[in-house]
Specification:
The chain has 209 residues and is mostly helical. It is built from eight helices and three strands. It has a domain of 135 residues: Cytochrome C3 (Alpha-Beta Complex), CATH 3.90.10. The chain is 27% helix and 6% strand.
């Protein structure tokens, strides 16, 4: 029996045929077309933090990299696509350092961008078993200018700020932002986002798991 020759698809119809074929393949997968197209795209690294060349910055970035991409935690689509912490809230540090977002420094035209300040402050915890604090200026000065904190909240002088956790919980010191617009104090996983230097460490040559 003689079979009829297959009809060739014209070059003009090929793109339409390809699109229809993709739509058929994606029809039953439960995700929207643009979610499939944009899924798992590697974020563009931001240049504001550069290459981590000291212990503190490397440790800090490692803490940020522990954030995970978890869908379905919020109905706000723009936030749902950002990395999350263990509580399911947006980890803004990871979002910035990993390059998911790169907001402008000012809404006003012509304002010069100020680079983040790479200065890390070591704060010894008063409780014997509590890990010490490393305060990174880099991520804070990415969002804020110096006068947001100095000298009204913190006097820029070593030993001039008698910080206590009780006062922080009451909204003083770090509590001016944390627990409100920055990440909260609980669950416990959030404690180690600040208290990351174990007692007795040299602060220079440690390795982390």
């Amino acid at each position: 029996m003689k079979t009829s020759p297959r009809k060739k698809i014209s070059s003009g119809a090929r793109p339409l045929f390809t699109l229809l074929f993709l739509l058929l393949l994606l029809g039953g997968c439960g995700e929207s077309f643009d979610q499939i197209i944009n899924a798992d795209l590697p974020p563009k690294k931001t240049d504001d933090f550069g290459q981590a060349d000291d212990y503190y910055e490397k440790f800090y970035k490692e803490m940020s990299n522990r954030a995970v991409l978890r869908k379905g935690t919020t109905e706000i689509r723009a936030l749902d696509s950002l990395p999350k912490d263990t509580a399911g809230n947006v980890n803004w540090t990871a979002a910035v350092v990993s390059g998911y977002i790169n907001p402008k420094g000012s809404l006003e035209a012509g304002v010069e961008e100020e680079p983040p300040l790479h200065l890390n402050i070591f704060i010894e915890a008063k409780v014997p078993l509590m890990a010490n604090v490393m305060f990174p200026h880099s991520i804070h000065t990415y969002w804020l200018s110096c006068n947001n904190c100095h000298p009204k909240i913190f006097i820029p002088e070593a030993g001039a700020n008698p910080i206590t956790m009780d006062e922080i919980f009451k909204g003083q010191w770090c509590g001016r932002c944390h627990g409100k617009v920055a990440f909260t104090f609980w669950p416990r996983e959030n404690c180690v986002r600040c208290h990351i230097i174990l007692k007795g460490q040299s602060l220079e040559k440690e390795r982390w798991k």
